[in-house]
Amino acid sequence: MPVRPNLTEGPIARTLFAFALPILGGNVLQSLNGSINAVWVGRFLGEQALTATANANNVMFLLLGAVFGVGMAASILVAQAIGRDDLKQARCVIGTSATFFIGLSVVIAAIGMPAARHVLVWMDTPPAALPFAEAYLRIIFLALPFLYAFTFVTAILRGSGDTRTPFLFLLLAVAFDIGLNPVLLFGLGPFPRMGIAGAATATLVANALSLAAMLLWLRHRRHRLWISRHDRALYAPNLTVLKSLISKGVPIGLQMMLISVAMLAMITMVNRHGVATTAAYGAALQLWTYVQMPAMAIGAACSSMAAQNVGADRWDRVHQTAKSGVLFNFLMTGALIVPLIVFDRHTLSLFLPDGSPALAEAIHLNPIVVSSFLFFGVTFVLSGVVRATGAVVPPLIILALALWGVRVPFASLLQPTMGADAIWWSFPASALVSMLLSVLYYRYGGWRRARMLPAAAEEVAIPAEVPAQVPSPVADVGPTSEPETPAYAAASAVRK
């Protein structure tokens, strides 16, 4: 019988690496999917349609970011319970979280569909692109429950020690999305020509099908965390768990919002230096998106792995997880940074024509900024580890100080003397401060005493009619499992 996913035993570095690779692969898949879809819309429907999707996607990312923190909190709670081998609490968390996520997504979708045009007008969407954006955003709101549910199930599986299954079904969703886009855009075969609405419909259908397939797969495998119809009492919200999800999840979500707002402030300052500088910054951003992915994947993996070991009271493994995560960050992020600096002209010329002023500016700014992602990676890893105990406010404060106490003021106040270079140097300056503060808090802070649940509520109330533990004749899929089907083996070969 395959071994259940267990992040509290075995070699730490090898387990962490195998656990993080599917997360990294999923991040890459999502970025590639967005790029490919943008090519279809931009090249065949025109600039107005591409502008429309950009505006609508900003709304979607904001809505997804708003619940990102709650998903992380649910993942940490499940991971701690799994580390304690407390399936009762893990399944209670899942039931409460599922009710919260699905209920919230339905409410947002119901409000957002009729309000889509008003939201876009408030965002100053160009009038020529407004009809396209409204048609696109209405369907995105309709897709939101599926997007939320997919995000939620993915977070829960990661907390339980399984990143392979989310990667496999994300791969399926991306394949559906890429394949359906041209079919629905242009009305190929028996399908109607939907134009810009076809791109959003492809996203809706792809996520709905992949979510359904993942749920059927988990039910078929009799996953130990699966809540059957006989256990539906677990879907009644547990107020203690719900309070923890919100109180711990909101600060994590605010971190994502702080980053988004800071990036808006930076692009506003960049715009003032003219088209060439903005184009150079935009081209470099395309590369930086991929450079930061290893650190984000490792940080997410460290959070789940540390949370399981916190639950198991294996503090030696918690600290080794942090050390291994920092080491992998330097190795993997550094492996991307070096060629991007050495071959910067070749990589940046993919987005900018040879001889343009923008290309020269991009070659100048890229090595200044790109090295800061090494520092960023350390912060991301250590923040993931300390959050695993429930210490979610200090990482938020550190991020706020780094972005709004260093980066934005540095770039704004020094531009009169340094010009655009003040913007570029603000990235490594803020990243270095963030790393130093994170290291100090990890070394001397009180994160080890933090809790996800109040001490008196370690054992959450479970409905009496729900069995304490559901035997699983088929083990869960996880980082130490052996694939049992050809499809699973094929996915493993692609993975991470």
From TrEMBL:
Source domain of life: Bacteria
Chain segments annotated as transmembrane: 12-32, 59-80, 92-115, 135-157, 169-188, 194-218, 252-270, 290-312, 324-343, 363-385, 392-410, 422-442
InterPro entries the record matches: MATE_fam (IPR002528), MdtK-like (IPR048279), Membrane_Transporter-Flippase (IPR052031)
Main location class: membrane
Keyword hit for Membrane: yes
Stretch list, region Disordered: 470-496
Membrane topology (UniProt): Multi-pass membrane protein
Annotated localization: Cell inner membrane
Pfam families linked: MatE
Keyword annotations of the record: Cell membrane, Membrane, Transmembrane, Transmembrane helix, Transport
Name of the protein: MATE family efflux transporter
UniProt lineage: Bacteria, Pseudomonadati, Pseudomonadota, Gammaproteobacteria, Lysobacterales
